[in-house]
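About this split. The held-out portion is used to measure sequence recovery: a designer receives only the structure tokens and must propose an amino acid at every position. Recovery is the fraction of positions where the proposal matches the reference. Here is one held-out target exactly as it appears in the evaluation file.
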């Protein structure tokens, strides 16, 4: 975040911060984040997720009234905090001026000796600014890609989304688990995609066609 300060320092407005290793965020979720931020007139708004297994994620810590008190990274959590299932998938909308004032104060005072953007929230809250955290992120959107195994999981989710949109628009996919379709492909209504079909690139398939099986 500090790397872009020289480009945004004089900008009056909001700064969206997301993680580069989280490719599954949906436009609908970002829209909800912007709408909530505007409605609340908050200094910071973050979209959270609730996971059955929150291991590896920063936990959202709230007070008895439900107000966010901070975010504790997984490696720094107490045994009690590890039981929190509301996590931070790192989708933030900041008031730009308040953001850069806060990140200047962040120090690597943690187990990993790293600079955590989440620590900036503690400074913002302590300064009396309004911070809002609301659950808007689906569990699958919180998946980060930091290994080839995680990339495989994310790719399957993206493929499911691509195929679902095509099916919602009148394309029949006989066996989605054994079909791969590029997001750039255009396929007409009432076309049938048979099993073991691989459609790559900016392919255009008209209406009422039949592709496959075992087609490339």
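Reference sequence for scoring:
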């Amino acid at each position: 975040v500090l790397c872009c300060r020289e480009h945004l320092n004089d900008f009056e407005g909001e700064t969206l911060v997301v993680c580069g290793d989280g490719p599954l965020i949906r436009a609908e979720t970002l829209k909800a984040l912007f709408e909530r931020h505007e409605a609340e007139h908050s200094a910071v708004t973050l979209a959270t997720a609730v996971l059955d297994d929150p291991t590896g994620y920063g936990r959202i810590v709230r007070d008895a009234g439900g107000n966010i008190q901070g975010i504790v990274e997984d490696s720094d959590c107490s045994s009690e905090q590890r039981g929190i299932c509301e996590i931070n998938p790192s989708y933030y909308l900041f008031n730009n001026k308040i953001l850069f004032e806060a990140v200047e104060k962040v120090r690597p005072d943690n187990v990993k000796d790293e600079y955590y953007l989440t620590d900036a929230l503690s400074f913002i809250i302590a300064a009396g600014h309004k911070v809002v955290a609301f659950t808007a992120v689906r569990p699958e959107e919180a998946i980060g890609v930091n290994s080839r195994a995680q990339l495989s999981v994310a790719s399957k989710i993206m493929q499911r989304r691509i195929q679902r949109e095509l099916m919602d628009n009148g394309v029949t996919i006989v066996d989605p688990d054994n079909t791969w379709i590029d997001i750039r492909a255009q396929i007409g209504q009432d076309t049938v995609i048979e099993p073991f079909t691989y459609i790559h690139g900016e392919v255009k398939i008209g209406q009422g066609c039949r592709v496959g099986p075992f087609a490339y």
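Annotator remark: The chain has a mean pLDDT of 94.
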